[in-house]
């Protein structure tokens, strides 16, 4: 059997353990697990099923098309979608029993027949109804007779515990809730993301929306112990010797100081390995960290190795870190981004996906 060219292996038992812990923290509040972007690169359907088995009661997606894929796979749990282009036919949401987020009166009309979550902008400055227009939206929703299940918002800086914007947004959310009640609505509330679920029990309200934490990546440094569910692996395709003074890869940014053995690994930036990692990272090969030499190419990297390395040997690019391998968080910190971007970057056609744990 051929070794994988580029493969992510998803530990569904880790997903279940992470979600079970988040459900426990949420207490009486319901738990939504967000599975947008194909489950942050982990597989929306498989993660969704695992999350529901672990006690989550909702799933969340950005696009309606993502929500419909869950329904097509037989998942009948409550699902909320919240971001689609103007003109998207939202009748499919009502037909499939998918909840829809709306932030304007126009969106309210377009989503007629679906159960609604009214979103208010409390300070993130992205989607969500501005405070000045909120009374009009909640009044229109009340008068329309549409089913309004909840009001909601999203926090900007919850991953920085103690940031003053968190309390400011909470106060604005409380005012928005009061205005919804005055308009005659009796909505539920949700504002807590992963970080707030972990650090702000006062903001869990009726439901929490957990994204990255369900996949085992903690947005709050030094916080709750979670287990990363994704391992990114490949294998050696060839091994060669280069002499001292020879250079490797485009631009000759690395030159061997001594005779060196190199393993060629068939993954590159087309497979989710950031080119910015060039000269700054290592992989796990035969139980040891081995440095990657030269620039990351579109399809390949060169790893310094020892005499025991053979074609077919497994190469772990990142994983949970339990074997000493790099982690997605390590990659992110090295290049100045977030681990969300690293794992979601595995949502690629050339990277195959396998699962461990009960499916």
TrEMBL record:
Pfam families: Ala_racemase_C, Ala_racemase_N. SUPFAM superfamilies: Alanine racemase C-terminal domain-like, PLP-binding barrel. Pathway: Amino-acid biosynthesis; D-alanine biosynthesis; D-alanine from L-alanine: step 1/1. The active site is at 36 (proton acceptor), 250 (proton acceptor). GO terms for molecular function: alanine racemase activity. The modification N6-(pyridoxal phosphate)lysine is found at residue 36. Substrate binds at residues 126, 298. Its cofactor is pyridoxal 5'-phosphate. Residues 229-356 form the Alanine racemase C-terminal domain. It catalyses: L-alanine = D-alanine. CDD domains: PLPDE_III_AR (cd00430). Its EC number is 5.1.1.1. Keywords: Isomerase, Pyridoxal phosphate. NCBIfam families: alr. Belongs to the alanine racemase family. Catalyzes the interconversion of L-alanine and D-alanine. May also act on other amino acids. PANTHER family: ALANINE RACEMASE, ALANINE RACEMASE, CATABOLIC-RELATED. HAMAP family: Ala_racemase. This is Alanine racemase. It comes from Actinokineospora guangxiensis.
């Amino acid at each position: 059997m051929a070794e994988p060219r580029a493969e992510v292996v998803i530990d569904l038992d880790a997903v279940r353990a992470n979600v079970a812990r988040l459900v426990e923290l949420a207490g009486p509040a319901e738990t939504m697990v967000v599975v947008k972007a194909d489950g942050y690169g982990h597989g929306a359907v498989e993660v969704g099923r695992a999350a529901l088995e672990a006690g989550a009661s909702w799933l969340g997606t950005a696009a309606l098309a993502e929500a419909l894929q869950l329904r097509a796979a037989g998942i009948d749990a409550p699902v909320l979608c919240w971001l689609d282009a103007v003109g998207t036919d939202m009748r499919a949401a009502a037909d499939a029993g998918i909840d829809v987020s709306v932030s304007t009166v126009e969106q309210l009309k377009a989503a007629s027949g679906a159960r609604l979550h009214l979103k208010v902008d409390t300070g993130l400055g992205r989607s969500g109804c501005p405070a000045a227009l909120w009374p009009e939206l909640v009044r229109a929703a009340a008068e329309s007779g549409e089913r309004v299940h909840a009001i909601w918002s999203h926090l900007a800086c919850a991953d920085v515990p103690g940031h003053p914007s968190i309390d400011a947004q909470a106060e604005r959310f409380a005012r928005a809730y009061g205005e919804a009640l005055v308009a005659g609505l009796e909505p539920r509330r949700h504002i807590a993301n992963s970080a707030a679920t972990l650090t702000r029990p006062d903001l869990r309200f009726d439901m929490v929306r957990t994204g990255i934490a369900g996949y085992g990546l903690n947005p709050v440094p030094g916080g709750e112990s979670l287990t990363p569910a994704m391992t990114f692996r490949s294998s050696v395709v060839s091994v060669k010797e280069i002499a001292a003074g020879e250079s490797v890869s485009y631009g000759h940014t690395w030159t061997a100081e001594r005779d060196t053995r190199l393993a060629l690994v068939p993954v590159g930036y087309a497979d989710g390995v950031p080119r910015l990692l060039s000269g700054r990272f290592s992989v796990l090969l035969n139980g040891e960290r081995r440095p990657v030499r030269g620039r990351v190419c579109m399809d390949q990297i060169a790893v310094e190795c020892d005499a025991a390395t053979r074609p077919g040997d497994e190469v772990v690019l990142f994983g949970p870190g339990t074997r000493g391998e790099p982690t997605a968080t390590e990659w992110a910190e090295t290049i100045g981004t977030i681990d969300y971007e690293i794992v979601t970057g595995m949502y690629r056609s050339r990277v195959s996906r396998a699962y461990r744990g009960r499916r």
